[in-house]
């Protein structure tokens, strides 16, 4: 697991600064303004570390701790004492590399990775607030005023690679930003028109058609990921711990369809939802025929989930018939279906074509048992914080002859 934040000795800044970490290739490409880039001193060969390079109008200089020791001579020591913005990262040097976007925070003396080039799970974090209180929430909400994030995210989008294949907008509940969410999506459309933008929302506020309409035609690769946990209001409302949520989410789904939005339904496979999975799929197929994709997702054992193990945990190995039935029903009707966060050895081989390596690189790990497994390269593995309590009893390395079969 590669963390997203590290301690750093930061000088020359009086407020947090977002910067694109740059090596010589990024300098040569000239895609981003110099003052919004930070030269990654670790990536510069000694022979190229010249006063002319350091004197460019970089937003900051970033290196490893201790910074002065990286210098071929006293150039960096002079820069360090000159008062210009500099950051010396501590810990694992792999935490950030050229192409990534860093936020340098002089108050906390920390550097946070806000975008990691090549990562499969980059997220624009929209808000800490939420209007639901899901039993398995991995990011427990905080009711704080954070509308400032709209401008912050727009500034971040400015620094993301134009070739980035996909980005999620998540929270909290992103629609609590209201029109601010549309502003962020519009910014993505302007700067990242070819990037697939995936808004993860509970959909409850989108029943306000004025809000849903704001997204019509806003980005040509925009998809909404909306969770639905039951075919009956009581089940969905129980899982999200919010009375009336089922009806609100359905209204949101219809409003999104009316606004010509692409929609994915996300079902986290918590025990009560797994037990009625086939009924839920029938409900989706009958009532929400416009849904393009259904993602059936293994639970992330962190946040509120840890307090609700008994209510939530169901070993997927005990529910293969339900999962197979759901996948078959969706596939028969031409609805795309994917299995996220489900290790291959916990599901029948007939379901492997639907299983995705869905866990973001920075929080993805494997167990010791996986080291001899023939299909590790295509298995989702586990969230880094998995414990035996949340691990299927079916975990067993797959042997080569089965993979070849
Ligand atoms: S043994 Fe590990 S790598 Fe192999 S299928 Fe199971 S979880 Fe995946």
Write the layout of secondary structure elements.
Elements (H helix, E strand, L loop, with lengths): L4 E7 L5 E6 L1 H6 L7 E4 L10 H5 L4 E5 L10 H8 L3 E4 L11 E5 L4 E6 L7 E3 L23 H9 L8 E5 L8 H13 L4 E5 L8 H5 L8 E6 L5 H8 L4 H14 L3 E7 L2 H5 L1 H11 L5 E5 L11 H4 L7 H13 L3 E5 L23 E2 L16 E2 L16 H5 L1
Parallel strand pairs: 2-3, 3-4, 4-5, 8-9, 9-10, 10-11, 11-12, 12-13, 13-14
Antiparallel strand pairs: 1-5, 1-7, 2-6, 6-7, 15-16
Bound molecules: iron/sulfur cluster.
Instruction: Provide the helix percentage.
Output: 25-40%
Give helix and strand order, one letter per element, not per position. EEHEHEHEEEEHEHEHEHHEHHEHHEEEH
Shape: globular
Gyration radius from CA atoms, angstroms: 23 Å
Largest pleated sheet: 7 strands, mixed, barrel
Low-confidence parts: none
CATH class of the largest domain: Alpha Beta
Total individual domains: 3
Number of strands: 16
* Level-2 CATH architecture of the largest domain: Alpha-Beta Barrel
What portion of the residues fall into strands of 2 or more residues? 15-25%
The SS-based structural class is alpha/beta
Question: For this structure, what is the CATH homologous superfamily of the largest domain?
Answer: Aldolase class I
What is the residue-mean pLDDT, rounded to a whole number?
Answer: 94
**How far apart are the first and last residues' alpha carbons, in Å?**
32 Å
Number of helices: 13
With strands numbered from the N-terminus, the spatial order across the biggest sheet is 1-5-4-3-2-6-7
Bound molecules: iron/sulfur cluster
